[in-house]
Task: inverse folding
């Protein structure tokens, strides 16, 4: 099966992640002022509950499927067998989980039941999600095109139908329906790439254990990425959920760009390891770490620098408490960026699933303890501190364990210049431009000035060392993108 270059795959993902960033920039101010922080809190809370049903429906199938399909994508018969068996398990578990979700909404759920029932559409979309297959065969163009159309459509519908705080159910319906349509549409293209055959019972039994092991990190991550909102509601109130969620949206936008690289690299490295190309894997690890360090440092220090202006311009004074939450959460981007490279390019492709699970379980436990201590006193800000502590602990544990297996010191060195550049950018924005009033124009001025300073430092360093970033932005960019000569020239 013909595969796209890493450059094209990453470019497709960046295009989509760019859309993911742009759309909230367009809709967030409108939604915040139309629905208000309490209604946003209701949506976020019910979505978090629905999300837990989705992760139980998917178990660890997404990661396992992506990795396994990548390893056998060139063998059509095996690819059909593997896909069909994984799909059978996914559908079986999904139907069972959906029935539990129905029972929960009918007999247990007492808070915001009308919104929770609409979120069932989101649960269905998670049950039929087969993106792992297309990621495994490295067909990212299809998913990007499909998601782009749906995102644009849902954005238009939001502006047409959302007018008052009482339209929360419409907002939920638009977003959950969009996700369902997005997942359904990809099934139309499936017959072109794979044929559904009778599941292999022996293989089904063998894959249960690794899938369950991979489910543990998924559940653990959800505890300190999603459970925060559930705990805030339980230990504080739904208004604090809205404050936290409005800040986290900006973090999610940034992480989308970082995760885009990890998404395209998992199947590529899994395939390289299957073909025993260890040298290419190590070079890819070092090069991509430098790229992520540039991106993550820019986002972390950028958000830290403009958090005050960003919240007031986008959400208004009603969300003033979100400023500190965003400032704290921005720090987590550094630790997430580091761990993302290690996870997607070493731990998952190397099938170190038990260690991966244990490290994330420790992070989840750390987060729960921190939340129990901090949320009752500090609300959403306490949850933000809990998230940073959890991400830091996971990054430390994974790095310590892998110290002798990967070039940790070389990887750490890649962060030196980006961190210094980010610090300088932060000082200039906060103290050099701090006197500017909070307006959209002044926010743009801060972003342009900060970005210019940051990029100049990176470019000067890159030109002196002639590294990957310098190559990417040089006159060879056309060759890099269209002749598959990025990240070490791996095709």
Result:
């Amino acid at each position: 099966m013909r595969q796209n270059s890493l450059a094209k795959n990453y470019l497709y993902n960046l295009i989509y992640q760019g859309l993911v960033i742009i759309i909230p920039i367009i809709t967030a101010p409108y939604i915040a002022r139309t629905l208000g922080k309490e209604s946003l809190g209701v949506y976020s809370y019910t979505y978090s509950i629905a999300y837990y049903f989705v992760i139980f429906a998917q178990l660890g199938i997404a990661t396992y499927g992506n990795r396994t399909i990548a390893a056998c994508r060139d063998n059509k018969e095996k690819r059909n067998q593997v896909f069909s068996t994984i799909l059978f398990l996914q559908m079986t578990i999904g139907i069972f989980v959906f029935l539990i979700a129905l029972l929960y909404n009918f007999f247990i759920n007492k808070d915001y039941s009308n919104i929770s029932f609409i979120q069932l559409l989101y649960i269905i979309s998670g049950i039929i999600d087969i993106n792992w297959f297309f990621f495994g065969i490295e067909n990212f163009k299809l998913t990007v095109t499909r998601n782009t159309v749906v995102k644009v459509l849902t954005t238009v519908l939001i502006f047409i139908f959302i007018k008052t705080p009482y339209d929360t159910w419409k907002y939920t319906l638009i977003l959950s329906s969009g996700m369902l349509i997005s997942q359904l549409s990809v099934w139309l293209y499936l017959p072109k790439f794979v044929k559904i055959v009778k599941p292999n019972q022996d293989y089904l039994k063998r894959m249960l254990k690794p899938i369950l092991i991979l489910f543990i990190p998924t559940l653990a991550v959800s505890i300190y990425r999603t459970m925060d909102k559930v705990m805030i509601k339980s230990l504080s109130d739904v208004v604090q959920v809205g404050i936290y969620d409005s800040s986290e949206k900006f973090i999610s936008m940034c992480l989308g760009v970082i995760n885009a690289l990890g998404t395209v690299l998992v199947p590529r490295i899994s395939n390289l390891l299957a073909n025993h190309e260890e040298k290419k894997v190590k070079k890819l690890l070092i090069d991509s770490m430098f790229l992520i360090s540039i991106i993550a440092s820019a986002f972390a220090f950028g958000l830290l620098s403009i958090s005050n202006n960003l919240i007031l311009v986008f959400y208004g004074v009603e969300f003033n408490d979100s400023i500190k939450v965003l400032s704290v959460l921005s720090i987590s981007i550094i630790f997430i960026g580091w761990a993302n490279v290690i996870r997607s390019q070493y731990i998952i492709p190397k099938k170190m699933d038990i260690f991966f699970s244990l490290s994330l379980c420790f992070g989840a436990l750390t987060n729960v303890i921190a939340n129990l201590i901090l949320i009752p006193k500090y609300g959403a800000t306490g949850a933000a501190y809990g998230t940073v502590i959890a991400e830091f602990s996971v990054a430390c544990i994974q790095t310590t364990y892998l110290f002798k297996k990967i070039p940790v010191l070389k990887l750490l060195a890649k962060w030196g210049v980006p961190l210094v550049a980010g610090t300088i950018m932060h000082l200039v924005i906060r103290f050099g431009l701090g006197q500017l009033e909070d307006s959209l124009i002044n926010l743009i001025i801060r972003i342009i000035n900060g970005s210019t300073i940051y990029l100049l430092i990176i470019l000067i360093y890159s030109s002196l060392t002639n590294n990957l970033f310098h190559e990417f932005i040089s006159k060879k960019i056309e060759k890099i993108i269209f002749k598959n000569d990025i990240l070490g020239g791996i095709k």
